[in-house]
Amino acid sequence: MNCPICELAGLEENRQQCPQCESDLRPFFLLQALDEQERIEKEQLKQQAKKREQAALRRGRTPILIAWGASFLALAVLLYFIWPKKAVAPVAKQEESSKEEMLALQKQLKQAKTESDSLRQALAEQPKSVYVYTVKAGDSPIRLARFFYGQDEEYKRLLEANELALDAMLKVGQKLTIPAL
To answer: What positions belong to coiled-coil segments (predicted)?
Structure first.
């Protein structure tokens, strides 16, 4: 340490008086100790401020993370509850139309069964040798053979009895002779 008055260098820290100028050095040592203590306190305050700043940054990030999480959750809820309903709605309509189509087909099947029963009854009432049939939409020699004889292969018998070519197309309203087996 140096003497603050005469600037004599190399004085010991615990010296109370300067050997050259005989100044009392105790107040200067006290001031120096206070300065050192103030410096230490400032350093501690800086460290505490730095810690508070870091904690504030961490706290500042927390609301951001919470906001991101809430946004993600809201998006998930939106996708789960709203989006699937729009995607499923056409399927429900499709199922509804499929049910209607199925009911219509069931009605047609009942009508066809009724017609088939009446034709079989009329066939049973006809003499066993010949039956006259009026062609309807969708009829073909194979279908008629299947219906009247129970076998697709008997379509040749229908073609021969009605003098039709193998590739002949049946016309709605055309009269066909159905020979008995």
So the answer is: 95-122
What CATH number does the domain containing 145 carry? 3.10.350.10
Closest CA to 115 of 145, 142, 136, 141: 136
Q: What is the pLDDT of residue 36?
A: 84
Domain ranges, residue 145: 126-181
Angle at 172 between CA 166 and CA 178, to 5 degrees: 55
CA distance 138 to 181: 24
Distance CA 57, CA 50 (A): 10
Average pLDDT on 72-91 reads 66
Number of structural domains the chain divides into: 1
- Which pairs count as long-range contacts for 116-119, CB under 8 Å and 24+ apart, including other chains? 116/147, 119/147
DSSP 153: G
Domain contains 83: no
Give residue 50's Cα distance to chain centre.
47
pLDDT in tens, 117-150: 777 777 666 655 677 889 998 888 888 888 888 8
Pull the structure tokens for residue 22: 């005989």
Name the pTM for this structure: 0.33
